[in-house]
Amino acid sequence: MLANPRKRNAFHRRSFSGITCTLLILEFQCTNFNRWRL
Q1: Cβ-proximal residues to 24 (8 Å cutoff; 6+ apart), any chain
Q2: Which residues contact 2 (CB under 8 A, 6 or more apart)?
Q3: Who contacts 8 (Cβ-Cβ below 8 Å, separation ≥6)?
Q4: What is the pLDDT of residue 4?
Q5: What residues in the chain have per-residue pLDDT under 70?
Q6: Maximum distance among all alpha carbons in the chain?
Q7: pTM here?
Q8: CA nearest to 26, candidates 36, 14, 16, 18
């Protein structure tokens, strides 16, 4: 895994984008929940 930096970088970038997407979805659901509660 450490022998191929390009592959490791691609995996890191993919996991980072996945985390960002999850955070965006959670934030969207939180704003929707607050809007429905108000």
Answers
A1: none
A2: 8
A3: 1, 2
A4: 67
A5: 1-5, 11, 38
A6: 54
A7: 0.48
A8: 18
**What are the residues whose beta carbons fall under 8 Å from the beta carbon of 4, sequence distance 6 or more?**
none
Tokens of 30: 């939180």
Contacts of 7 (CB under 8 A, 6+ apart): 1
CB 30 within 8 A of CB 37: no
Q: What is the distance of C-alpha 13 from the center of its chain?
A: 10
Q: Which DSSP category does 2 fall into? A: T
Q: Which of 15, 19, 6 is nearest to 27 (CA)?
A: 19
